[in-house]
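Lab channel / #folding
Pinned by the channel admin:
"Please post every new chain as: sequence first, then the structure tokens as a reply. Keep commentary short and put observations after the output so the thread stays searchable."

First post following the new format, from NK:
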Amino acid sequence: FIESNKLETTSKYAFRGLRDLTHLSLANNNIKFLPRDVFIDLDSLIELDLRGNAFECDCRAKWLMMWLKSTNATVSDVVCAGPEDMKGRRLNDMSSLHDECISTDFVVHQSVASESLSIDTFSFKNDVYVTIAAPSTDSCMVLQWDHIEMNFRTYDNITGQSIVGCKSVIIQDEVYVIVAQLFGGSHIYKFDDDQSRFNKFQDTEVSKISKPNDIEAFQIGSDWFFVIADSSKAGLSTLYKWNDNGFYSYQSLHEWFRDTDAEFLNLDGKAHLILASRSQVPVIYQWSRNNQKFILQGDIPSMEDVVAVKHFRIKEELYLAMTRYIGDSKVLKWGPKQFSEIQAVPSRGSMILQPFSFKDRYYLALGSDYTFSQIYLWDDDKKVFDRFKEVYIQAPRSFTVVSTDRRDFIFSSSFKGNTQIFEHIIIDLAL
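Reply from TO:
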């Protein structure tokens, strides 16, 4: 009988080894919580008295709630003193808490000793691969997930001249990697299964692309395309189409606008393409089934100097994350026939605002050239993103989700440091 002693908690090992203890009373103390599994050794327990305490029925009480369901002992009422919305309720009657006591974190899993500009991933024959554009080493590094060592290891290396983008496309069970370069033109490589390496498959027209800044690959119906956004003053962003023998230029989009990013998405069931630019607001193209071309449809007003645009969905609602290097980046929501701003995110020195999700948690990763990068988490009640975690990456240029072996990773490219691989982990706050 340990009653009326003004105890607020006990040691996790207070009752260790007391396997013959049959009756225990902790009544009329000031106990707010008990450590997880404090009663684990009480094999013979018949009766437990916890009356007259001030239990906080938050995450710390989750284990006790579950234990009350499984124990054979007779347990007195465990009355909640808090939080406010739980006051006066019996923990014995509950099957869940309002707060399910689950949080997440991003921890460094691995570092790749190379600077990088962009990262892509693909799956092929039950293996997961990652392509990393590393202009400082004139290479497109290909990594493979090692199921034994549980890390990413070097698989192949595509060499070139100042490679800024490596985009994978799988067509009819063949893997192609589009390699965009600042010098020497852009090329397409094909995976040779016999040699277990990538070999050059095709050159793209050098005259079409002067300064590639982004590659976007997509499918419309049964046809495959990719577009390269050209960021030079004399650039001509170009759409390429697959014709069973290779990719060939199919449509020239607007020129002279220093395009920074291309984003393919479906709006109201129709294929669209958004081109962001340093010299005008983002423009929206719509695919014409009659002409089999993209037709300029409109723009996104009041959004000058956008360096990247990414779309994402939360519960069927469509959003855009628009990155600006100077001023605030913006989150926009698709409504009746237009995008409307719902949130401004301070982002001086940012080149990427990347949306991604794991399970039912939606994030935004905001890179920064001047300070810590930020990861934001969607608040479903407020319908905005809140700051969640700071991560240190030198001049990040992309964030890419890679999932394998039931584990989730974020690859963060760095323009001035090593490429970082973060693992997304689940934390049970009740532990």
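NK: The mean pLDDT is 93.
TO: also worth noting, The chain is about 0% helix and 55% strand.
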